[in-house]
Specification:
Layout lengths: L2 H23 L6 H7 L1 H16 L4 H19 L7 H9 L3 H5 L6 H12 L1 H10 L5 H29 L2 H8 L7 H35 L1
Helix pairs in contact: 1-3, 1-4, 3-4, 4-7, 4-8, 7-11, 8-9, 9-10, 9-11
Length: 218
Amino acid sequence: MSRDRREKCYQFASVLAATALLAVSLIHPIYPHEQWLQHPPTVAALAALFWTAKRQWLSTAAMTCLVAFLVLHIVGARWIYSYVPYDQACAAVFGSGPNEWFSWTRNHYDRFVHLAFGLLLPMPIVEAAKRHGGLSRTWALAVAIGVVGTASAGYEVFEWLLAMIAAPEYAERYNGQQGDMWDGQKDMALALAGALVAAAIIAARGARSTATIVSVES
């Protein structure tokens, strides 16, 4: 089997696995109304990834980043983010969990996913900007940081609008603020921090690749 064929099969398998996880997560939902509200973008994203895999528009690494983020989102949506039982899972394995280790008083899974959004999205954005947009690496990195920041801010605006029009208890359960009035600002800061770290890593890898090519040619 050729390398291109293997990569295409891997990408399709990854998207199928995420789709299967979504289906399983919807069985006997714990918070049915809130969970279903989380997933219209998930379904659209999975459809887009199937199309992308068919066309092989992205590398395997970039596709893995996108699928990994969707998996994190699907897990979070199952427990509407505020109640993901990571602390109980850690306690079952290690005898204690992050709440005890770091004296946490809230569920931080939503914070982790916002950080992951910033860390995982720049690679596919940079790749698409360079391969299909004809941008240089520097401009592609700038676009990636801008897209992550804009998308993160747009999502927080959506949550604010939902809080304005929905019943308070429903909005709180969907938004997952857990009583933190600065939740939106912290989420955006984490996404931007993740994007900056990812951009720095991509830039460093690109610089090393360029240096290697120059060294070989000389």
